[in-house]
Amino acid sequence: MSLRIYGNRQLKTLPGQETRPTLAMVRSALFNIWQGTIADCRWLDLCAGSGAMGAEALCRGASVAVGVEQATRACAIIRQNWQQVANETQTFQVLRGDVRQRIKALEGQQFDRIYFDPPYESDLYEPVLEAIAHLQLLASDGELAVEHSSDHWSAVTPSKLEICRQKVYSNTALTFYRSSI
């Protein structure tokens, strides 16, 4: 399977149900919301899947993209996709492993935009949002977008983060956070 991103660029995805690419409608809406803030930003893509969100950020001028993904085959696809779209001034890194463990390797770094898209029925939401807050991964003027089901969501609000907006797109929703300190 393949998908297209900004500039009509085609990306690879894994076959089957191993990953769930973010719908084009949701991807487009997110980048419209964050329009004007992607160029030169530091981007973190958690549960990156095919890396489409990070690839889109790189296409729109992000200076750094870091992805965390558990599936080995998906990590190879992310690297291929990001290599295809990144220019010589942009850097990217893909970390393989459980997001709850790998996120700790990012301590001391800050990101302007964070996109977190775990499997909807997973138990990852609370521990990962808590880790983002505890490790202070979100820059003071940054935003974090969490993709989740619009049907089954209990908003998690760690100390140091606050919800600043929510958007619903059919069965998918995005909850946006910013730093509260």
TrEMBL record:
Give the domain of life: Bacteria
- SUPFAM superfamilies in the cross-refs: S-adenosyl-L-methionine-dependent methyltransferases
InterPro entries linked to this entry: DNA_methylase_N6_adenine_CS, RNA_MeTrfase_RsmD, SAM-dependent_MTases_sf
* An example Gene Ontology biological process: rRNA methylation
What would be an example GO MF term here?
nucleic acid binding
Q: Which UniProt keywords apply?
A: Methyltransferase, Transferase
Which regions span the lipid bilayer? none
What PROSITE patterns does this protein's entry cite? N6_MTASE
Concerning PANTHER family, the annotation shows: METHYLTRANSFERASE (PTHR43542:SF1)
What this protein is called in its record is: 16S rRNA (Guanine(966)-N(2))-methyltransferase RsmD
